[in-house]
Design goal:
By secondary structure, this protein is α/β, with parallel strands linked by helices. It is built from five helices and four strands; from the N terminus they run βαβαβαβαα.
Amino acid sequence: MATTENFNHDKTKILILATLSGGYAGADSVGQLHVDYAPNTYILPVKCPSMFPEDFYLRSFKKGIDGIIVMYSGTDSPYRGGPERTAQLINRTYDRMKEAGIDTRRLRLTAICTVCTKPFLKEVGLMNDVLAEIGPVERDLAAASPEMAVS
C-alpha cells in the first residue's frame, strides 16, 4: 500500500460527516489534545448521517471530494433507527458508486465515540492511504465517463 509520508494532501479532499453525538466529539477531542492530522480534511457536524441521500455522496464526488468518511456514534446514536438507516443508505450508495465507476473505498462508514482520538486519527490516515493509492476522484470519473470529470 502507498504511504502518506510523501503524499501531497493539497491535491485531495476528505469530507468527514461527523455526528454530534460521536464523530464530531471525537474530532473535538483530537483538537483539544492539539494533535495534528492531514490538512485536507473537512469536518461537517451533523445530527444523523441518514439525513443525507445517496445523491449527496455522488454529487460530492462529482464536485471534487475525493473521499468521504461517515463517522457516527453507531448504536449509541440518540436517534432511533438512525444507525440502521445510515448503514442501509451507505450500502445502497456503494452500489450506485459502482455503477458510476467510482471506487467504493472512497466512502467509509465508521463508529467513532466521543473520546476516540486514536480511531479518529486512524480513519483519516487510512483514507489518505487509500487516496495515495487510487488518486483523485477525477480519475474514476474520467475513466467512467468524460462528461463526469471534475473541471
